[in-house]
Amino acid sequence: MSMVLWIKLDNDPEDYAPDDLGFLLEELDDIDEQCTELQVQPLSEFVDYSDVEFNMSEEELDESWLEENAKWVNPADLLITLQSLEQAMVDEDDDEDLIDEVRYLINRCAEAEQAAVRVRLIAVM
Predict the structure, then answer these.
(1) Pairwise CA distance, residues 4 & 123, whole Å
(2) C-alpha span between 9 and 82 (Å, rounded)
(3) What pLDDT sits at residue 67?
(4) Percent of the residues in the chain that have a pLDDT greater than 70, as a whole number
């Protein structure tokens, strides 16, 4: 089963359709190691797995469970990790698809910071 990351801002409209970010999720373990080397918070600590838990649960969960268990984070905290990763990836001439996804997240976090809203970095199936 395939999973991707989505980023949602607290002020996104209900019908907002986020871009699927598959490269970052696929490389998350390696990215977390890179974060450790860069002495920034691991990217995985920002990821909200509530959608995966909801879909994998053997219990019949109510839709409200998703909102109650959503992991919203401060975009400024996430930006520290993302900007460090972007610089390191560019310096190392890393995969352009990864760099593009990091830049997309940076732009969305900057939007959130400007609007003073939280973000969710959601792993979805």
Answers:
(1) 6
(2) 16
(3) 84
(4) 99
**More reliable by pLDDT, 2 or 21:** 21
Q: What phi and psi, each to the nearest 5 degrees, are found at residue 4? A: -135, 170
Domain boundaries, position 68: 4-124
pTM: 0.92
CA nearest to 72, candidates 108, 122, 15, 29: 122
- Answer yes or no: are the C-beta atoms of 31 and 43 closer than 8 Å: yes
- Contact (CB, 8 A) for 3 and 25: yes
Total residues belonging to the chain: 125
Number of domains the chain is built from: 1
The closest of 60, 105, 58, 113 to 81, measured between CA atoms, is: 105
CB atoms within 10 A of CB 27: 18
> What mean pLDDT is reported for the chain?
93
Q: Does 64 have pLDDT greater than 90?
A: no
